[in-house]
Amino acid sequence: MVATTVHLLRHGEVHNPAGVLYGRLPGYHLSERGHAMARAVADALAGEPGTTGGSARPRHDVVAVIASPLQRAQETATPIAAAFGLDVGVDERLIEAANHFQGKTFGVGDGSLRHPEHWPYLRNPFKPSWGEPYREQVDRMLAAVADARRQARGHEAVLVSHQLPVWVTRLALENRRLWHDPRRRQCSLASLTSLRYEDDRLVGVGYSEPAAALLPGASHVAGA
């Protein structure tokens, strides 16, 4: 059997002082902490101790790094590709989900929910009615995974995408319903959802957080 792993990586923290739903809007780049998260993932995959400490780890066998065309995903992919001497590929299928509320703040107070013209977009959370259907996200993501798996056959590939597409893809692969409570997603910033294949058969789904020490509130939780 030929073992292949495709890692779905959520991008790092984004500089977004206005707190809008930036979606597919251009110009949203990683924050300083987001860049540190990307470097932490690169160190973890390359087997380096990393800036957050710890001993050297096994080096992963990454032969392809492919990212969503959005700036935050490209910036997250860059140090990983550099660690393995690779170029960053671009795949439109890894892009963020389309969302009616893109560019707006989302909330009841001063957010878009206080305006009745937006209410019809909330009528069906199972699809969802406010954006790209979950099933369409899964289909495009799995097509990208299939191509990456063929490209990296016998090795590992890293696909840099966004929280919702990564999460619904995992739900689909685990035969769970696609509609869900966003607060329960297991897909933190700069996390890896790792799909393990033997030949063409999915044999396992793993999850890890190489940049956990850099997540907002991590130092407080750790008591540092």
Automatic annotation (TrEMBL):
GO terms for cellular component: cytoplasm. InterPro entries: His_Pase_superF_clade-1, His_PPase_superfam, PGM_Phosphatase. It comes from the Bacteria. Pfam families: His_Phos_1. GO terms for molecular function: phosphatase activity. This is Phosphoglycerate mutase. It comes from Cellulomonas algicola.
